[in-house]
């Protein structure tokens, strides 16, 4: 039987695990980026399979924008990975001529020096634009395509793909398959019918599905989607420990959306509150402050993980 290989790389160090083998450490000459490398769909299921010795992670909302680094830009993704391994959450929109690009808004004005609606302009126009950061500062960075992001992510990061409402699910699933990105690209759904449709289109892919209470656990199970294919997004408010434990009993990770109010609480009260979220059952923190949140939870990495599925090097 083929072994499953899951790799997490910290700056200057390489840690690999194959089934039946111990973790091996070797030196590498890399790009100076923390990396997560999941090489198969079975590896993805193992990576997201909850266990008591799991290692908490951050998910960089819209790629983790910072001053000088706009949202949904590949350069921004790499900026985050200089500081921490991360899941990269990105947004997919579609141009008038059906090219899938990374863009959150329907309009171009906030994040680029262009004008108009994404679905009313063609890709040739998109290619002429430059991205602006969240302070409105123009950068030299271009709007990436989904294909470029998938190509970039292989061997570097896990992705969660937020599909904008005008984009056909079929087209995104096809692009992920064409890029052979199934091991590292999970698709986001906000409703159970959407999750079921995505699962039917691409049953091998992981899905991020909104599950916020016991009733929604029941409704999710009625979809017939296996728990081995789901990462449970528990919303933008912290859930009780008992609810997180119920998700863990199903074998799934929880993603807590700390972006917005909870990120602001961390700014006001101190970044140590991120650690509290993890200690109360959040496995992944979806945040606009991935660098700060990762630093705050770095001390929670188990030192003697019996499963040793993956290892995050502490800079």
From TrEMBL:
- Specify the superkingdom: Bacteria
Record-linked SUPFAM superfamilies = PLC-like phosphodiesterases
User: What residues does the GP-PDE domain cover?
Assistant: 56-297
The record's listing under InterPro entries reads: GP_PDE_dom (IPR030395), PLC-like_Pdiesterase_TIM-brl (IPR017946)
**Entries under Gene3D superfamilies matching the protein:** Phosphatidylinositol (PI) phosphodiesterase
> Do you know which Pfam families this protein is assigned to?
GDPD
The name on file for this protein is Glycerophosphodiester phosphodiesterase family protein
């Amino acid at each position: 039987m083929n072994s499953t290989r899951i790799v997490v790389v910290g700056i200057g160090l390489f840690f690999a695990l194959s089934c039946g083998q111990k973790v091996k450490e070797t030196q590498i000459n890399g790009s100076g980026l923390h990396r997560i490398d999941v090489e198969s769909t079975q590896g993805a299921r193992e990576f997201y399979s909850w266990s008591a010795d799991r290692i908490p992670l951050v998910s960089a909302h819209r790629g983790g924008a910072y001053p000088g680094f706009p949202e949904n830009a590949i350069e921004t993704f790499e900026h985050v990975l200089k500081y921490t391994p991360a899941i990269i959450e990105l947004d997919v929109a579609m141009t008038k001529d059906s090219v899938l690009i990374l863009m959150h808004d329907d309009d171009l004005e906030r994040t680029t020096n262009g004008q108009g609606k994404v679905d009313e302009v063609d890709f040739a126009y998109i290619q002429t634009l430059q991205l602006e950061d969240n302070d409105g500062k123009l950068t030299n960075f271009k709007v990436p395509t989904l294909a470029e992001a998938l190509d970039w992510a292989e061997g570097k990061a896990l992705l969660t793909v937020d599909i904008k409402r005008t984009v056909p699910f079929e087209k995104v699933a096809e692009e992920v398959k064409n890029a052979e990105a199934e091991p590292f690209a999970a698709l986001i759904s906000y409703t159970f019918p959407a999750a079921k449709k995505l699962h039917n289109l691409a049953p091998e892919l992981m899905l991020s599905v909104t599950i916020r209470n016991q009733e929604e656990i029941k409704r999710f199970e009625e979809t017939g989607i296996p728990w081995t294919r789901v990462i449970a997004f528990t919303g933008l408010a912290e859930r009780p420990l008992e609810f997180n434990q119920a998700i863990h009993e199903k074998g799934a990770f929880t993603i807590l959306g700390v972006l917005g109010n909870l990120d602001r609480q961390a700014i006001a009260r101190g970044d140590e509150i991120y650690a509290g979220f993890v200690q109360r059952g959040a496995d992944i923190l979806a945040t606009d402050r991935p660098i700060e949140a990762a630093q705050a939870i770095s001390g929670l990495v188990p030192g003697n993980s019996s499963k040793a599925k993956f290892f995050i090097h502490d800079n």
